[in-house]
Specification:
Elements (H helix, E strand, L loop, with lengths): L1 E6 L8 H15 L3 E8 L6 E5 L2 E7 L4 H13 L10 E5 L2 H14 L3 E5 L1 H5 L8 H10 E6 L4 H8 L5 E3 L13 H14 L5 E6 L8 H11 L5 E6 L4 H8 L4 E5 L8 H6 L2 E4 L8 H8 L4 E4 L4 H4 L5 E4 L4 H13 L2 H18 L2 H16 L1
Parallel strand pairs: 1-2, 1-5, 2-4, 5-6, 6-7, 7-8, 9-10, 9-12, 10-11, 12-13, 13-14
Antiparallel strand pairs: 3-4
Helix pairs in contact: 1-15, 3-5, 8-13, 11-14
Length: 373
């Protein structure tokens, strides 16, 4: 099998989407699939085609003229010898321009299209006047649609009844994902100097925006009367309206800039819980990363979070339900140290058992093989 993989999220781009794309591509290449990644990058990078282990990387800078960049991509592909453009599949992974180009290139290359829907591509894309057309065209043209949240499957089917939809949850490689003693010591020292004794640390990591439920969680903490029992650890881009609320001093907090994955280990070590109060979501890498490190979660049941989190590994609530969120905050505040540690251990065991890269690769491989028959 030889795949043309279209994405706006691939290293050296940063963030969870790029990490997921890299993990899935590496897994499939290791399983013998040749993958040419067309990285539709928004960074100022030279147009180039380079060799990677298991395929090629086509760097396609969108710059200020994405239409030109995509047409030039076809010029590059069509100028190659027939054997080099004999793709068995075209995959669209993340981003409006990847989805806009995928149905066209799939038709011109006479290769079935597989659309890998991530969280926002679908959750907000379907309501966007700008993005909905590309999304719906990709869904209708797809021989298979893969979703990372089980709850997204019936939503896709309701919009495109003929679509064949597969649920493939994200995975995480835990082989080198562990907190070293030096990182635990760093976390201990940080807590001693930043967190009042007796407060429970609650991590919020990633896109710290109202749409991710950050303001909603602040409301719940305030309404519960338990805000004084927590110290928030916020890592990542902070939306201005959220920053203004934190400046009002309703809850103790520490703010850190965006950190790369392995830089987060000491942060996770400093957290008693990690919060994911999303109104809607895919399956965030943060949820898997924290759980894999035996950190219990305070999470809504949005999207793929419902496939991962229950009361055996954390404190859950219905997405967007303020009363349920306050109740979850109460349970998290009241939990003793030993039961909290048991929740974290159960979280780690679940992730290491059920959310492995091997399982993720096998399920995507099954999709590709099914379409190749």
């Amino acid at each position: 099998m030889r795949v043309l993989w279209l994405t706006e999220h691939y290293p050296p781009s940063r963030g969870g989407m790029a990490e997921s794309c890299d993990r899935i591509v590496r897994g499939l290449r290791a399983a013998g699939v040749v993958i040419d990644v067309a990285h539709l990058t928004r960074r100022a990078r030279p147009w180039q085609v380079t060799r990677e282990h298991g395929g090629r990387l086509l760097t396609v800078p969108l710059e200020d003229n994405p239409e030109h960049a995509l047409r030039r991509l076809w010029t590059t592909l069509s100028a190659e010898p027939a054997r080099d453009r004999a793709y068995s599949h075209v995959v669209a992974f993340g981003g409006t321009y990847a989805m806009a180009a995928a149905p066209i290139l799939s038709a011109w290359l006479a290769a079935p299209l597989v659309t890998l829907l991530r969280g926002n591509d679908f959750d907000t894309g379907v309501f966007s006047l700008r993005r909905r057309g590309a999304l719906m065209d990709a869904l209708r043209a797809s021989a298979r649609v893969c979703v990372v949240a089980r709850s997204h499957a019936p939503l896709v089917s309701a919009l495109v009844p003929d679509a064949r939809v597969s649920w493939v949850a994200n995975g995480i490689d835990t082989r080198d994902w562990r907190i070293l003693p030096s990182e635990r010591e760093k976390a201990r020292i940080w807590r001693e100097s930043h967190v009042e004794p007796g407060r429970r640390t609650l991590g919020l990591i990633g896109q710290l925006k109202n749409k991710k439920g950050v303001g909603f969680l602040l409301d719940a903490l305030h309404a519960s009367g338990r805000a004084g029992e927590f110290h928030l650890v916020l890592v990542g881009e902070l939306e201005e309206v959220v920053a203004e609320r934190l400046d009002a001093g309703q809850v103790a907090c520490s703010r850190l800039p965006f950190l790369d994955r392995y830089e987060l280990l000491a942060v996770y070590a400093a957290c008693d819980l990690v919060a994911l109060p999303s109104f809607y979501d895919g399956l965030p890498n943060v949820a898997l990363e924290a759980a894999a490190l035996d950190v219990p979660l305070l999470a809504s049941d949005a999207g793929g979070l419902a496939d991962l989190v229950d009361d055996e590994i954390g404190f859950t609530f219905r997405a967007g339900d303020p009363h349920a969120c306050r109740a979850a905050v109460d349970r998290a505040a009241d939990a003793a140290v030993e039961p909290l540690a048991k929740l974290g251990a159960a979280a780690g065991e679940r992730v290491r058992r059920d959310f492995t890269p091997a399982r993720e690769t096998a399920e995507y491989l099954a999709v590709l093989r099914d379409l190749a028959e």
